[in-house]
Amino acid sequence: MPFSEVRRFAKYVGGTSANVVVGASRLGLKCALVTRLSADVLGDYVIGYLAAEGVETRYIKQEKEGKTGIVFAEVYPGKDSMFLFYRENVADIHLARGDIERDLIQKTRALIVTGTGISQQPSFGSTLHAAKLGRQLKKTVVFNLDWRPSLWQTAQSVRTSRYRKVFAESSIVIGNEGEYLAATGAADLMGAIESIPQHSKRVLVVTHGASGVTVIEGDSRTDVPGIPVPFVKGLGGGDGFLAGFMFGHLKGWEPAQAASLGNAVGAMVVTGHACSESMPRPRELNRFLREKGMSFDLGSPSKV
User: Fold this and answer.
1) CATH of the domain at 104
2) Which end of the chain has fewer CB atoms at under 10 Å, N or C?
3) For residue 229, is it within any domain?
4) How far apart are CA 62 and CA 40, in angstroms?
5) Is residue 207 within a helix (H) or strand (E), and if so which, with residue range?
6) For residues 288 and 179, what is the distance between their CA atoms, to the nearest angstrom?
7) What is the pLDDT of residues 235-254, one digit of tens each?
8) Can you tell me whether residue 173 is helix, strand or coil?
9) Geometric angle at alpha carbon 71, from 69 and 76, rounded to 5°
10) For residue 228, is it within any domain?
11) What is the pLDDT of residues 145-163, one digit of tens each?
């Protein structure tokens, strides 16, 4: 149904960061989210939802100056969704260095930073500070490229410079081919990979949607097949992948094995109407894996 004819909307907590921490928390990982939200009922709703999902919310600050971002997404089963972003003066872009607590990063095993977080100031400086701190403390720093062109208002040179600075602090980089090209300004994927500082020392994961993912470690390249499903939307699949990948990574699995589980979680998410609420719990994931003839020892994950 065209947007102009829609009469009702469903409300969900979403966005890459929220989706990933909900997905990881449902799988059993201990997660905290560092961001800013509006000091109103919308911000209260998001915090309440995350807390109910087991996400640590004490590091989320509410402010009166900025708003909680809103995104309208049309869902057409079997087709890509249309997005309409309302992110003028959003609170999360006001993230300050003081919001990043060293003690929190010290207690974690992994830190995820996003491309949206570097799209504007002051959150770019704060995100880069968090990544540097994570590297200094010898944590796994995961850079989710999360390229949203409508959220950037800078020249390409500024964009690629910002991405490059965060690349330099990262242990693992995850994004689709288009995101790698946008982040580096390269003309093709190999050029993008070669332009990443010390790329051979990082784990690079290139997602291909339903076709699966490619894991690149130095000179080694592993293609991990996707899992065919009758999808309702493509929205949220990458976030599900990252939640599943992090679960495997923190259990000490090889990147390709972690990516295989990530594919399974992502496949489950795209079969549901929502994103965060479609993230599977272990019982649901195990059932799906059995149906697909896949076997993983999910066990009890190490806490992060």
Assistant:
1) 3.40.1190.20
2) N
3) yes
4) 8
5) strand 203-207
6) 29
7) 889 999 999 999 999 999 99
8) strand
9) 165
10) yes
11) 999 998 999 999 999 999 9
